[in-house]
Each structure stands twice: as structure tokens, then as C-alpha cells.
Amino acid sequence: MPDSPVPPIAAPRKVSELVVERMTGLIERGEWPVGSRIPAEPELVAQLGVGRNTVREAVRALEHAGILAPRRGDGTYVRAASGLDAALGRRARTADALQVLEVRSLLERGAARVAATRHDEADLAALRAALADQESAARTADDRTFRAADVAFHAQLVRTAGNALLTELYDGLDHVLVRTLATDAHGRHHRDVPGHREVVAAVAAGDPDAAERAVTATIDAVRAHLVADAPGEDA
Length: 235
What we know:
Structural class: mainly alpha
Number of helices: 11
Radius of gyration: 22 Å
Helix content: 55-70%
Largest sheet: 2 strands, antiparallel
CATH class of the largest domain: Mainly Alpha
Number of strands: 2
Mean pLDDT: 82
Order of helices and strands: HHHEEHHHHHHHH
Strand order of the largest sheet: 1-2
Number of domains: 2
């Protein structure tokens, strides 16, 4: 018998690639959450035990991938939780609001149905807490805080379905979803759309049909606001 072929020796990996993996892991685990500023370069050098050039190369690679974003005079921030998030975000930013809303409808209606049949008590508690935050922000918070609370509620509904891939797909759209929250002539986002309490009640009751109807009511109301507020439309 002929001898088995000897596998080639793999070239050693660049240290900067290992640093990219380490930093990506910190982001994916939530230790560096989306929207947060990463440690300054001297801190990264000390924490990772590598040189400045290696840190800079790794940061540039993650910026090119859309995961990190520099802010002049204010450091570097986490823009996306993964490469998939970054790619989805780039694509969504080129779509119009009604297209993003249609994607929201497809994902959220399916997630609501699954959540109604698959959730556990911890999921339900988190969903109720997100609803409470959303309702409180709708009453008292500034517009930016309200938008964040509203997006967080919808994201929690999707997480309650218990499908990690679906959650990642939806989270990849988080930072552009606020474009689908219709605004009036003064730029304030509508806070009176129906369906939020109803979907939580339906999930708690284990009623997938009612959960889907509640999401549909929310999406329909947002769509109506978008159409009414479109340029050239009457207020």
C-alpha cells in the first residue's frame, strides 16, 4: 500500500487575527455591547499583551467588517454584534422604510406565533418587563429613549421565540428599525400604535393566532403612519 499523504504544515496565524477573534468574542458575548465604546488603545495593548500596531490592525479589520465604527475625537464604538449584523444593517439602510417594515412583519408575526407555544416563565417575565419599559417611555421619555425602548420590546418578542438564528437576523436590523417608526410633522414618533399589550397577553395565554393578530395590528398602524407622513401627503 502507498503511504498516506502527509498533510501540509499550516502557516502560523497572524497575531492580529487572534486579536480579532478575541475582540469579536467580547462583542458576541455582550461584554462589549452594541453602542458601547471599546477600551482605548493603551488599555487594549495592556489587556491583550500585544503591540500597538497589532491592535490597530485588528481594529481596522473590524471597522472594515462594519462591526466597529470610529468617532472622531471620541474613540471607537461597537456598531454591530457580528458580521451578519453588519451586513444586514448595510443592506437595510439602502432599503426604504416600507421594505424594512415588510421584513419586520414577516419576522415578528412568525416569532409571535412560536413564542406563544414555546416560551417559558423567564421569557414571559422578560417580555413583560420590556413592555413595561416601553409603556413608561411612551408616557414620559424623550423621543430617542422611547424609540430605543420600543425597538427593545420588539426584539424581546423575537427572542421569546427561542430561535437563536432568528434572533440574530432580527438583531441585525435593530439599529435601522427606528426608521419604520413613523414620525409626524414635528419629528416625534407615534406612540399610540396598538398591539403591544395584546401580543404579550396572547403569548402568555399560549394563543398563536391572537399573537399574530396583535403583531399585525401594530404593523398595520405603523404602515398607516408611514404612508400618511410620506413627503407630499397631507398631515
